[in-house]
Structures are given as C-alpha cells and as structure tokens.
C-alpha cells in the first residue's frame, strides 16, 4: 500500500475519526462498569464515554451519503442533550469543583 492509495478526502477522514471516537467512548463506558472501583471515576468514565460515543454518531450522521431517516433526526435532537448533560456532570465532578478558592 502506497501513499497514493490512501483516501484522504475530508469525509473519509471524518468517518474514520468518528469510528475511532465511538470505539474509545464505548471502551471507556465498558471499563467504567467492569474495571473501575471509585464511584466518582465510574461516573466520569461513563460521561466521557457518552460524549465520545454520541459525538462519533453525530459526525457519521453529518457525513453520510443517504438522506436522513427518523432515527437520524432523533439522534440529531437527543444526542446534544446527552452530550450537554455529560459535560455538565464532568464539570461538577472535576477535582476541586465546588471548593472555595480563598
């Protein structure tokens, strides 16, 4: 395989990156259930996994070639809500969150 054989089109790169993000997100989510013992770390791993998982799905919806179906529209509207909720919880459980800086 040579460099000329690679498909470096932007949609191909986005498609590959979205699958990588989905895989990492799913791995983080599974690890939170089977490998992590700390409750806060479990929650943070799940939230990071949800953000990556839904971001990957939304990226694939954006670059797809076919017309959007009902499931795609549902993901477009519900995905950002799940991402926002997970990011809000990540901010709330960050180290030092809620402590008085004085």
Essential attributes:
102 residues, mainly alpha, 3 helices, globular
Task: Describe the protein in words.
The model has no long low-confidence stretch (mean pLDDT 88). Helix 1 runs antiparallel to helix 2 (39-63) and helix 2 runs antiparallel to helix 3 (70-92). The protein is globular and about 50 Å long. The chain has helices at 10-34, 39-63, 70-92. It has 3 helices and no strands. It has a domain at 38-94. The protein has 102 residues and is mostly helical. Keywords: Membrane, Transmembrane, Transmembrane helix.
Task: Please summarize what this structure is.
This protein is an all-alpha fold. Helix content is 72%, strand content 0%.
So how many helices? 3
Percentage of β-strand residues: under 5%
CA radius of gyration: 17 Å
Q: Which structural category fits the helices and strands?
A: mainly alpha
**Percentage of residues in helical conformation:** over 70%
List how many beta strands DSSP finds: 0
Unreliable residue stretches: none
Order of helices and strands: HHH
So what's the overall shape?
Answer: globular
Largest sheet: none
Measured between the Cα atoms of the first and last residue, the distance is 59 Å
- Average pLDDT metric: 88
Protein name: Transmembrane protein
Transmembrane segments: 12-31, 43-63, 69-88
Organism: Brevundimonas subvibrioides
Keywords: Membrane, Transmembrane, Transmembrane helix
